[in-house]
Amino acid sequence: MAQAAAQTATEAKKRGKGRDAAQMAGGMDRAALLRAYHDMLLIRRFEEKAGQLYGMGLIGGFCHLYIGQEAVVVGVQSALGQGDEVITSYRDHGHMLATGMDPKGVMAELTGRATGYSHGKGGSMHMFSKEKNFFGGHGIVGAQVSLGAGLAFSNWYRGNDRVAVTYFGEGASNQGQVFESFNLAALMKLPCVFVIENNKYGMGTSVERASASHDLSKNGAPWGIAGAQVDGMDVAAVHAAAEIAVAACRAGNGPYLLEVKTYRYRGHSMSDPGKYRTREEIQKMRSERDCIEGARHKLESLGVEEAEFKRIDDAIKLRVQEAADFAQSSPEPDAAALWTDILVEG
Ligand SMILES: Cc1ncc(C[n+]2csc(CCOP(=O)(O)OP(=O)(O)O)c2C)c(N)n1
């Protein structure tokens, strides 16, 4: 990781040539960090609103919030280029927003409305966007890892220079299909960035109790997969590590494994009583390590003033409220829609 950090610093220096070094924060300049702050805050406010609507009985079924983990997806997405692809688990609303999907369509889907991304028939865990190269949204733990390797395979087969990013949790990381995917991706040098979002808990089981491997970034080592661990509460650090990973993949070096150490503030899903950890543990992370507060402090030191933060906050609040209003005023799908978008084998 030290080597990776040094490489990033050199690359950042090259990119920032002529700029004041004080205007850079971990390879992100002021404008990039401000954008990242905006994107993280949009996810946070969207998820808070989704939590409220769930409490009001407007969202049915499962709902896994991403609050606390925003720096992971925003940092990685900021290192991607046009046409790069993203696939993830059921904890997916943040990934959708980061790829540029419309908050209105996502909220409408959460509330089961016809205007949602899956016409109100998929819900929280099942949304896709071909336009934004977002491939879901998968409720089966680990399933997206082999699908993500498949996305990378299709890019390799077509001979383009696109990279597929496959996100999964530390709980999923010891599944057999994950290691099968590592093997094939390494064997064929597939352009896949595997991102382990290590939020410390798989449902109510801590990573210490579930995993014999304590440095998950080394889990691809038997197949020669390069890996790095990164602080997932620091968006600039995630961005810097992701730039290295994406560049390595795009250069044809095969897959890359990033373990991003993060934390979720809310329960596993909305029905989690949270008995496996203390309130103090959560509060400590929130007050000392929060990714949005951390970015805000860096931006303040780069000269961003209160009025600018307020302008961003107000615009996001409005956008999220508009998404909630749009969802609530949209119709539910017609009963006849039960017979569309499905495969019926006779
Ligand atoms: C194959 C399979 N086994 C079990 C489950 C039940 N389940 C849902 S989420 C989860 C924990 C996964 O934890 P992790 O991969 O760390 O992701 P996180 O929820 O922390 O984002 C489990 C066991 C499932 N959905 N699919």
Question: What can you see in these coordinates?
Answer:
By secondary structure, the chain is of the alpha/beta class. The chain has a single domain, classed as Thiamin diphosphate (ThDP)-binding fold, Pyr/PP domains (Rossmann fold, 3-Layer(aba) Sandwich). It has helices spanning 2-15, 30-55, 70-77, 93-98, 103-110, 143-158, 176-187, 207-210, 235-250, 279-289, 291-301, 306-329, and strands spanning 24-25, 28-29, 85-87, 164-169, 192-198, 201-202, 205-206, 226-231, 256-261. The chain has a five-stranded parallel beta sheet with strand order 3-4-5-9-8, sandwiched between helices. A hairpin with a 2-residue loop joins strand 6 and strand 7 (205-206). Mean pLDDT is 93; it is low at 1-6 and 8-22. Thiamine diphosphate is lined by residues 89, 91, 139-141, 168-172, 199, 201-203, 268.
Largest sheet: 5 strands, parallel
- The dominant shape is globular
Q: How much beta, percentage-wise?
A: 5-15%
String of helices and strands:
HEEHHEHHHEHEEEHEHEHHH
Rg over alpha carbons: 20 Å
Give the number of DSSP strands. 9
Parts with pLDDT < 50 across at least 5 consecutive residues: 1-6, 8-22
Q: CATH homologous superfamily?
A: Thiamin diphosphate (ThDP)-binding fold, Pyr/PP domains
**Structural category:** alpha/beta
Quaternary organisation: single chain
At the first level of CATH, what is the class?
A: Alpha Beta
Number of helices: 12
Could you name the key traits of this structure?
Rossmann fold, 9 strands, 346 residues, globular, alpha/beta, binds thiamine diphosphate, two-stranded antiparallel ribbon, five-stranded parallel beta sheet
